[in-house]
Amino acid sequence: MLLSTFKIRNFFVFNTLKLMRNVSAQPNAASTETKKPDTLKSLSVSEYRNVYVEFLPDPTVEFRNPIREKLERFDMLARRENVDIPEFYVGSILAVTYSDPHSLGKTNRFVGICIKREGCGLRAKFLLRNVIDQQGVEVLYEMYDPSIIKVEVLRLEKRLDDELLYLRDSLPEYSTFDSNMEMEILPEGTPIPINTLKVKLKPKPWLERWERKNLRGVESIDVPDYVLEKAKKVATPWEKHDLMKQYMKTIPEEEQITIFNEIQPQLQQLELTRKKLKRKRSFIKPVKLG
Amino acid sequence: MALSLIFKQTCIKFLEDKFLGLSIQTCSALQIREKHVHPQPRLRNPTWFTKKNRVFHDDFVTSENTKFIQEVLEDQYKTPTKIELPENTIQWTPGLRRTGVIARKIGELPMWLKNGKKISTTLLQVLDNHVIKYYSPEEYDPPHKRAVKIKKKAGCLLIGAEATDPTSFTKEYCNLFKNTGVMPKKYLARFFISPDAKLAPATPITAMHFAVGNYVDVRGKTKYRGFQGVMKRHGFKGMPASHGVTKTHRRGGNIGGGGEKGRVWPGTKMPGHMGNRYRIAKGLKIWRINTKYNVLWVSGIGVPGATNSLVHIYDTNLPLRQPTKPLAFPTYFHLDSNVEEDIYDESLHKFSDPTIMFEKEKN
């Protein structure tokens, strides 16, 4: 049970969830053959916590209040009826269209890789990064900002790390994405692919001490031995075994189930409309762009 | 004869001396040091200050009896008491002061305006407020009298919030609610009001007491931060971290001059206890009201107190933020009427509205 209460970003859970996805995908595929194609199996409650991460409240005990959380969820669902916020992860490539108060009557579209997701509830944010004209650009979007017109996931995938902030110090080609990139559509029921790309860091100076961050998506870091030794000294490898710490940082599973059961009808409705839209599109083979 | 007379006189004189000595002694014991000779009025607690919580003993009450107690309680408070509407109510005018409410700070959330601007708001949940008692200005006799005579004397309204099982309270505390017919409340608060704004006992007060677009003052107890230094307590800048600075990075520095003023002046900002004091955040705008859960969205994140702590909400007394439309006076009574679940300010974006598009102004 405790294992299941781990945060979704935990790597171990990623593997287990992948298995779960596969398991749940098999009967789905079978049912589509036998039953009418209209009956779509919705996501199970255990999968909601990956897709709708921000619906889980801040686990800090002193900030919690059930009524506030409920009102917050109502507002989030009300906003989601007006804008389709799809499932995405850190490492996915997104395109955000938003109306800009500084250019009246026009819209703005930004394509970039999601390098960070933070906050929960109405405060949820995501950070997009791209390199435009040899200049790194990052835009922090509020998920429930009413001036966001459209969020498209151009490439749905995960990376090896929870945060890709090291892309700021890596070679620019790793965070360069064509703004005319076309949407890559995964066939239904496939697990979320994990991109095992290892990026190359630029030589120092860096923005952060990446050798201390225990990064998996980075090629071997070139630093002197004494720096590595120092990193070893300040490392806290026992923290991943600290069950109490993990527990305090997460919402218990029972509570997650009650939360998602409460909002399931509305979420299902949203999913149905999304799936109807999806079926209208044809499958396009992924093409590699610059 | 003469001898006896002399003896008597000496005896009396001796006694007189003795008494004189005694009287001097008593005089010295009763010395008065204060300037004002009249005795200061003794602080006395308000009438509703009684011991609240009962000490729980092992009563060995059988489960049947506890059930019976529950039934009796349910019967007693099943039918809500009839609310007496005040006779010949008057319309609100700027001079009149209404009652406040007891609320709970339940958190902070961002909201967006129709012009796309993000604002931060604090959510205040108005608890199940009921009027317990009204003290007229004559009845409410404060122990400390002011030197200046007050022309418009205020009455005092006692309000309770959060109905609780009365078996957890003492008998004296429960007696406060005896004549009202409402369940004993966990929290009590007094509000000074104009005598015209008085309310009958058991009158409920909801979030509809306030209106969207008006301003309120919120009083709460700030978080206790203990003994704090000058940087945290008063926002001093501290001193440089380097450039030869030693042992003085977070210290306040000089606290006074020399010469004639060579002393520490009263009110000098220094380290000390921080927080755990009642403070009022004034002039907060009400952006939105949820009538189902009785929640007010109030501007800013400066409401004193932690999340889930109690606050008192009053109509603001800032002269430039007085309401333009008349308020519900003495309170909102049409509780049965159908009102919208969410009432928004005109400039606030509803989440159910379509996406904001910044259009060019058509001339």
Automatic annotation (TrEMBL), chain A:
Belongs to the bacterial ribosomal protein bL19 family. Signal peptide: none annotated. It is found in: Mitochondrion. Keywords: Mitochondrion, Ribonucleoprotein, Ribosomal protein, Transit peptide. GO terms for biological process: translation. InterPro entries: Ribosomal_bL19 (IPR001857), Ribosomal_bL19_sf (IPR038657), Translation_prot_SH3-like_sf (IPR008991). The keyword Cell wall biogenesis/degradation does not apply. The keyword Mitochondrion applies. This is Large ribosomal subunit protein bL19m. It holds the Pfam family Ribosomal_L19. One of its GO terms (molecular function) is structural constituent of ribosome. It comes from Aquatica leii. One of its GO terms (cellular component) is mitochondrial large ribosomal subunit.
UniProtKB/TrEMBL annotation, chain B:
The keyword Ribosomal protein applies. Gene3D superfamilies: Translation factors. GO terms for biological process: translation. The keyword Ribosomal protein applies. This is Large ribosomal subunit protein uL3m. GO terms for molecular function: structural constituent of ribosome. GO terms for cellular component: mitochondrial large ribosomal subunit. Residues 238-268 are annotated as: Disordered. Keywords: Ribonucleoprotein, Ribosomal protein. InterPro entries: Ribosomal_uL3 (IPR000597), Ribosomal_uL3_bac/org-type (IPR019927), Transl_B-barrel_sf (IPR009000). Belongs to the universal ribosomal protein uL3 family. Coiled coil: none annotated. The lineage of its organism: Eukaryota, Metazoa, Ecdysozoa, Arthropoda, Hexapoda. Pfam families: Ribosomal_L3. PANTHER family: 50S RIBOSOMAL PROTEIN L3, LARGE RIBOSOMAL SUBUNIT PROTEIN UL3M.
